[in-house]
Amino acid sequence: MTSLLAAAAFFVLIHLLVSGTRVRDALVGRIGEGPYMGLFSLASLAGIVWLSLAFGRARSAPGNELIWGAASVLRWVQVGLQLGAVSLVVLGLSTPNPTSVRQEAALDRPVQGVLRITRHPFLCGVAIWAIGHLLVNGDVASMVLFASMLLLTLFGTVSIDAKRRRALGSKWDAFAAQTSIIPFLAIAQGRQRLNIGEIGAWRLLLAVGVWAALLLGHPHLVGVPALP
Known about the structure:
Blueprint: H1 2-19, H2 22-31, H3 33-59, H4 72-93, H5 121-136, H6 140-168, H7 170-178, H8 185-188, H9 196-199, H10 201-221
Helix pairs in contact: 1-3, 1-6, 2-3, 3-6, 4-5, 4-10, 5-6, 6-7
């Protein structure tokens, strides 16, 4: 369990204390954008591998106590949440977005598609993924893993916004004024309108396909069934 806690802390802190802060700005100024991105990508990959291995070991460790058992209805809720999570991740990865790495030029385009729903679709998808898994996994190891991912995504959105505001100034402010971090908040506040047609049928079909594949493949990929 100690290794899992250390891996979770490492992965979260390199993002929250480096990636979106002035520490990043200083490092880029010293070594350049390309070398920084390469080193940070390697550190992130190492963190993911460490976290995955540590979680696998912690799941079967003696100290991994079950804090609560999930009711059957929560497992069905989890299935629905994962459809929303996967949809946001797929839409986020396939849509030009100024919050993504080296996609600042997307600020010159009108706000459309999934960006009307949230300007951080990928991170919001990961947050929903983590929340869903916390609902149905009551053991200590799972709580450490998924709570750390939830913490990273929630603070990560704020960190990215601050980084983009420093770099892009008024152009970013205009984009942020039209969008929201929380899904559908800008629409509810009248700053945006929902337009499903802009998202594209192929993206929606791809999202459902990925969700179904993960649902059916979960026992083989993770070792436990996703369906109740």
